[in-house]
Design goal:
Radius of gyration: 23 Å
Shape: globular
Distance between the termini: 58 Å
Strand order of the largest sheet: 3-2-1-4-5-6-7-8
């Protein structure tokens, strides 16, 4: 029995894709190596913020099944790879999951199947890494099966733009491959944009995130310099943002998190280094953004010193430890290096986050705050790292002994702002 779609990797990218495909009536199966993820999904429990248990119930009712076994790949007309690509030890992408998925697909590949890679990586991966693995089956891309790359554009927690109404870029190994991929994605998204080829589609994803990475680094460095110049950086950004053309507002913070911004530009930098060049914009942006947690801790140390308290022995409360507001996603969150540095200085660190019931840094649990108003009064310093909408920030400011706002949300004289 054939199925319309097999999704390899059921995380923040793969599961929303499976949901949208099932919603338009396609038969969908999912493959993931984590037995806990698979068991949870088949039992109706979603581990992804953007897919609710109700969404999953509708998927299961439509016939969706998750499996740790690779046999489901043999029955699919379209196979989409949505596996993680973390950084390797040499600073490039770790393609272990991609090559593993490719090998599993190659062992079961049939003529006429469409294979799409969505995992973020450097230009050339689809053609130079994935294609040879798939062609180990004896079938040829563009002749016996279709091969394409389509960068994921999932923004966890975004209530305005989801998978369906975010344009989907597609680059094919051949024009015929591209046509197959466009035809498939047109069923699940409103707008499909065809790139010249797989390399252009791969580069488009890295360009999007490198643009954000560099501009965040710009405002992060300006935040440090504006303090020395006695300039309110937040007000300056708000003023500049009134220009209706030629400017997009980015805002400083304790660092950058998630998979896209701190990780993806390194793929491009890595590829360029293999050509004997340096991508200096990315290297500088990474250096600036990487040191922001240290800057936040140094400012925190100064705040405590101003009231006659050393960091060592002080109780410090971190508010919001996810990488962005109103999601549970903790990937690359700057809260981790902030907590690590505070602990190294001898601070007693606690946290509060409505999306994170338990939190550990370097394997050592961080104590939850408990009742928030009480905790705010009892801690020597509170650092707002993530401005979840559940927080009444004016109430936080009223209760906190000393408050450091790294999100620029509170404009009042009794609050220190980044």
């Amino acid at each position: 029995m054939t199925v319309d779609l097999a999704v390899v990797g059921l995380g923040y990218v793969g599961l929303p894709l499976a949901r949208e495909a099932a919603a338009v009536g396609l038969s969908v199966v999912g493959h993931d190596l984590d037995p806990r993820v698979v068991a949870g999904l088949n039992a109706g429990h979603s581990h992804v913020d953007d897919v609710s248990d109700d969404d999953l119930a509708r998927m299961l009712a439509a016939g969706f099944i998750a499996s740790t076994g690779q046999e489901c790949l043999a029955d699919a007309q379209t196979i989409i790879i949505c596996v993680p690509t973390p950084l390797s030890a040499d600073g490039g992408p770790d393609l272990t999951a991609v090559t593993g998925a490719g090998e599993a697909i190659a062992a079961r590949l049939r003529p006429g199947v469409l294979v799409v890679l969505e995992s973020t990586t450097y230009p050339g991966t689809t053609d130079e890494v994935l294609r040879p693995i798939l062609e180990g089956s004896g079938l040829r891309a563009g002749r016996d099966f279709a091969l394409a790359f389509s960068p994921e554009r999932i923004d966890p927690g975004n209530k305005t733009y989801g998978l369906r109404d975010t344009p989907k870029i597609v680059g094919g190994h051949t024009p015929e491959c591209a046509a197959r991929a466009v035809a498939f994605y047109s069923k699940v998204v409103d707008t499909v944009v065809q790139a010249k080829g797989t390399r252009e589609a791969e580069m488009a994803k890295l360009l999007e995130n490198t643009y954000r990475h560099v501009n965040i680094a710009l405002v992060n460095e300006l935040a440090v310099l504006c303090r020395e110049l006695d300039v309110d950086i937040w007000n300056a950004i708000d003023c500049a943002a009134t220009k209706p053309f030629g400017f997009q507002a980015f805002r400083p913070g304790a660092g950058v998190g998630g998979h896209c911004i701190p990780i993806d530009p390194n793929y491009l930098s890595y590829k360029i280094r293999t050509l004997g060049y340096e991508f200096r914009f990315v290297e500088l942006a990474r250096e600036i953004n990487h040191r922001m947690p240290e800057y936040v801790v140094r400012r925190s140390q100064d705040l405590l010193n101003d009231v006659g308290k050393p960091v060592h022995g002080s109780r410090v409360l971190l508010l919001g430890v996810t990488y962005k507001p109103d999601v549970a996603d903790q990937r690359e969150t700057p809260a981790v290096p902030v907590a690590r540095l505070l602990r190294k200085l001898g601070a007693d660190v606690s946290y509060d986050d409505p999306f994170v019931p338990a939190w550990a840094v370097d394997g050592e649990p961080v104590a939850p705050a408990g009742d928030l108003p009480t905790a705010l009064r009892e801690h020597d310093l509170t650092i707002l790292l993530q401005d979840h909408s559940a927080y009444d920030l004016q109430d936080v400011a009223r209760h906190a002994r000393l408050l450091f706002d790294t999100r620029g949300r509170l404009n009042r004289p009794d609050v220190e702002v980044l």
